[in-house]
């Protein structure tokens, strides 16, 4: 028997931060499972819709949207619901990962990290949950980070924001459970993406991280897609309010 999480036909999935990295891998997996996929990011990207349709997506759409902008998120929701009539899966993947010591973090930088990593999640949930409630069905997955449970310096604003994501996940799980909506989070470890390569261009940090793990190889976006597929499926109907740490079994701080 084919697992239910391998079939997303008839489902509409929206993914923020979908242009590259983890978000793009999620979009491709959901497309291969037959979902209609809406990718959202701040940058222009060519060929997204065609590539996902070629993978098997029921339909695909790409929207350039700043998800920290309240009006833009509301307009996005109206556009998606007008075109597709529903939103079954919402993946809040967009993230900003600066590294600065505490004394050098300005209030403006702190607020930007919170806006991207927390407020955008709140805005998309608030915009799409009413449609999920009307269908008595929804799967929300918020991307947090394993740094919440580690001892690591230079990321006070980032770690605080990702801790807030876990809190938001649990709060919404409690509020929305009776509506047929599950809310969970995935907390990846250091994963090889264009964003993290820009932070660690020599690649040494990936190898260092791998040596602190039970599974001693660097993580890639492909390592996360199976967990996402399950959490956004009918198989996961009784799982909510949880954070799944996906870091290869990291055993110690770097």
Give an overview of the whole structure.
- The chain contains 8 helices and 7 strands, in the order βαβαβαβαβαβαααβ.
- It has 254 residues and is an alpha/beta fold.
- Strand 5, helix 5 and strand 6 form a beta-alpha-beta unit.
- The longest helix is centred in the middle third of the chain and has 29 residues.
- Helix 1 packs across helix 2 and helix 1 packs across helix 8.
- Strands 3-2-1-4-5-6-7 form a 7-stranded parallel sheet, sandwiched between helices.
- It has one domain: Rossmann fold.
What descriptors fit this protein?
7-stranded parallel β-sheet, 42% helix, 254 residues
Tell me the span between the first and last alpha carbons: 42 Å
Which CATH architecture is right? Answer: 3-Layer(aba) Sandwich
Please tally the β strands and state the result.
7
How many structural domains? 1
- List unreliable stretches of 5+ residues: none
Total of DSSP H or I helical runs spanning 4+ residues: 8
Please give the CATH class.
Alpha Beta
General shape? globular
The major pleated sheet works out as: 7 strands, parallel
**What's the alpha carbon Rg, rounded to whole Å?**
17 Å
Question: Considering DSSP H and I runs of 4 or more, what fraction of the residues is helical?
Answer: 40-55%
Q: In the CATH hierarchy, what is the superfamily?
A: NAD(P)-binding Rossmann-like Domain
CATH fold group: Rossmann fold
Strand content: 5-15%
Structural class: alpha/beta
The largest beta-sheet arranges its strands as: 3-2-1-4-5-6-7
Please write the string of helix (H) and strand (E) elements: EHEHEHEHEHEHHHE
Instruction: Calculate the mean pLDDT score and round it.
Output: 91
């Amino acid at each position: 028997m084919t697992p239910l999480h391998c079939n997303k036909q008839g489902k509409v999935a929206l993914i923020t931060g979908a242009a590259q990295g983890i978000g793009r891998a999620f979009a491709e997996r959901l497309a291969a499972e037959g979902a209609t996929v809406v990718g959202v990011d701040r940058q222009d990207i060519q060929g997204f819709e065609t590539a996902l349709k070629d993978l098997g997506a029921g339909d695909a759409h790409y929207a350039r949207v700043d998800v920290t902008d309240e009006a833009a998120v509301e307009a996005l929701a109206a556009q998606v619901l007008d075109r597709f009539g529903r939103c079954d899966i919402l993946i809040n993947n967009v993230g900003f990962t600066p590294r600065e010591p505490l004394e050098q973090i300005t209030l403006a930088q702190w607020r930007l990290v919170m806006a991207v990593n927390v407020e955008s999640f709140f805005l998309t949930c608030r915009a799409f949950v009413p449609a999920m409630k009307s269908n008595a069905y929804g799967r929300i997955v918020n991307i947090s980070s394993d740094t919440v449970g580690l001892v690591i310096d230079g990321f006070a604003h980032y770690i605080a924001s990702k801790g807030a994501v876990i809190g938001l996940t649990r709060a919404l799980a409690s509020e929305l459970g009776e509506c047929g909506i599950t809310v969970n989070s995935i907390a990846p470890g250091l994963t090889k993406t264009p964003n993290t390569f820009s932070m660690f261009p020599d690649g040494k940090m990936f190898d260092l991280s791998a040596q602190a793990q039970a599974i001693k190889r660097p993580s890639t976006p492909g390592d996360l897609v199976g967990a996402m597929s399950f959490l956004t499926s009918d198989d996961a109907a009784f799982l909510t309010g949880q954070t799944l740490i996906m870091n290869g079994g990291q055993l110690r701080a770097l």
